[in-house]
Amino acid sequence: MSNSTTDPDAYLCYDKGLILPIVNESTWSTGARITVYLIGLIYCLYGVSIITGIFMSSIEVITSKTKTVNIANPKAPGGTQKLKVRVWNSTVANLTLVTLGSRTTEILLCLIEIVGNGFHAGYIGPSTIIGSAAFNLLVITAVCIACPPIGEVRYIKQIKVSTLTAAFSIIAYIWLLLVLLVITPNIVELWEAICTFICFPILVVIAFMADKGYRGRNVAKDDDKQALLGIGNVTREGVADVMKEMGKHPDITQEQAATIAAIEAEKNSPHTRAWYRVSETRNMTGGQKLIPTVDPKLLLAYDQVKMGSSISIGSTLFPEIPIVEFAAASCAVYEHEKRVRVWINRKGNIHPQIVFKFETLDGTAEAGSDYIAQRDTMVFGSNETQKFIDIDIIDDNEWEPDEVFFVKLSVDSKSGAKLGKKHIMQITIINDEEPGTFEFTMPSYLVKESIGVLQVPVSRNNGTDGKVVLKWKTTDMTAISGKDYEGGKGELVFEHGEKQKSIDIPIVDDQEYEKDESFKLELLEVSDGAKLGKTRTSVITIVNDDELNNLLDRVVSITNVNLDRLRIGNASWADQFKEAMNVNGGDIESATWVIFALVPPPSFLDSGGWISFCVALTFIGVLTTIIGSLGSIFGCLINMKDSVTGLTFVTLGTCIVDLCVSKKASVGEKYADCCMTGSYSVYVFFGLGLSWVTASIYWTSKGLVFVVDSSSFSFSVMMYIICAIMCLSLLVLRRFTPFFGKAELGGPTAGRYLSSIFLLLLWCLYILLCSFQSYDYIDF
């Protein structure tokens, strides 16, 4: 056959599409047409996934409608507490709007194909419905089994509801075989179509009753509280818990703490499948995320704190930040020694190489006459924690009073390191040779609970000769060691020439209001030759932060603003256009499907999401009509039967987002209910039922019957039933067998991967056998 021709008889597949082709393609080569239709099919399937995400946003708003109820709570004012709970029952919402929303393309494709074919049965729509059911049951279940973190499991919580829907998933397809092969072979009568469709509301009612019977009164109260967490504002207690774990570290701003609190609120709240669908769609299109974004390093540090793996109280929150500082705040040197050694420590992350600078600065001592000025760059190598600087002292053999100069450290802000508190050292040039007298600089200290680490300075006067070990201890007063501060006994070492150092006492910030509390810090003894001064005891008083409550209120307010901005349905129409035109980092020329911004936001006219629901459904209908035409013509051009096209290309296009959604739900949710809907019977009862009722009414009104070619369709249904029974049997086995972790998802490594491989091979076998039957390699 020629690649290009004007012969009308060679104009292939022009009559296969409902609305396509819209131009004369008889002069196009077959290869060019295949390429165009394949690209168009992929593009439209991508587009329908976007509009379905918008559609699911309206469904999430509709099913998230709340009401305020009063429950008994003796601790609350008046003995009652108000809670916001969802109006929609979660089971009813999942079986109706959520399932229909995620399967709208398949349902409309089946209906539009029948209407477009003059109410004759088509192949792509029914095959896509059966193919989607098989893909969801086998492939998505396989992925969900493998995805939970190693060592974790996800089991079905609402087991009665899941058992019911699983049973209906088998019964629905057995009913199809009875209709097509037994009761009225190759014919669907009106009563059969009505029975098929009416099974949908019957399923919903029975599932609702099972749900209510399963949960009971106490579980219902728990669900009410979960609903409050999922849809209400974050509480002060929740923010206080986050800030307690963060330790109110000075490196953490209020905005960062609020962002982490918002992330924790989202993580700990149960989410619907609609929420995950919207989230995945926005991830695909570069839209606004439903979970706040934060610096990964900050989030990692917070996770380490929660796991107890961060370093002790008072040290830096970020173990990845190196800290450079002097070992002591001051030191002294005798003029006749002619040299002083200054030690520099590196704390925090000791692994990277750090470059830092130092320079000397004049005080009463002057460079050139009293010491030799220095300015240089030094490097901490990997895992190196201490270095020293030698500074030459000028001995002029003349009597002078004690003089001081300074050494200053600096680091490049781009290096990732930071300076500690002791980044400037005072050096005193003296003329005596005594080990010195040691005492506190102050008899008492007043510190805030949020200080982290209290540094109590100890001074060394009247000499700095030799190394001196100073012993100290703390004594509880109203403050208790281990609860309010980390006390005990310890030693403070003064090296030769060091003049002032500090005792570090970690202060515990429990984020709770308390009265002022005190403890005592005492100097016990020093090395031989050294002396203790008069101020041997210092009383430390820990005061509660006056601004704690105000700080919590500010962070709570910021957190709620973050959550409100990200909550589904809160965007305005203008926000939608801005988001549509700013994908890919603001690349307007690369923006795709901007037309979907015409769909009114769920908050439009306070309609509760219904206006958005209807408009988005219209867009899906138009796009589905195009997809049906593209799929039929593309399959015809490559000599692929419509039934195989529906089972493969169209099914994969409509289900790939669901795969990503279920994968994320299997990782993010505590239970398996969200990622294993089990509502495959809805595809038959509503999807096929609606189109069958429509066609049956049409043909009955003409005194004829609705004819359905059941050959390939019945075979795929039968194969699905066999695969479904095997899949559900595996899930039951997993729930009760230790080898699989006694849960539907996750569990031991060997069990989870064997289960996933088995289901994936089962799906491949299903597609292979159905394709062979369609091409008459299997006689059925």
Estimated helix fraction? 40-55%
- The count of helical stretches stands at 18
- How many strands? 24
Q: How far is the N terminus from the C terminus?
A: 33 Å
Mean pLDDT: 80
Question: Uncertain runs with pLDDT below 50, 5 residues or more?
Answer: 1-6, 215-232, 308-319, 584-591
Widest β-sheet, arrangement of strands: 9-8-11-13-6-19-16-14-21
Overall radius of gyration: 37 Å
Biggest sheet, open or closed, and with what strands and sense? Answer: 9 strands, mixed
| Beta-strand content | 15-25%
Overall 3D form: elongated
What structural category characterises the helix and strand content?
Answer: alpha+beta
Could you outline the blueprint of secondary structure elements for this entry?
Elements: H1 30-63, E1 66-72, E2 80-86, H2 90-102, H3 104-116, H4 124-146, E3 153-154, H5 159-183, E4 187-188, H6 190-231, H7 236-246, H8 254-267, H9 273-285, H10 296-306, E5 323-326, E6 330-334, E7 339-347, E8 354-362, E9 375-380, E10 386-392, E11 403-411, E12 418-419, E13 424-430, E14 437-440, E15 444-448, E16 453-461, E17 468-476, E18 489-494, E19 498-506, E20 517-526, E21 531-532, E22 537-543, H11 548-566, H12 573-580, H13 583-586, H14 610-637, H15 642-668, H16 680-701, E23 706-707, H17 711-736, E24 745-746, H18 749-774
Parallel strand pairs: 5-12, 6-13, 14-21, 15-22
Antiparallel strand pairs: 1-2, 3-24, 4-23, 5-7, 6-19, 7-10, 8-9, 8-11, 11-13, 14-16, 16-19, 17-18, 17-20, 20-22
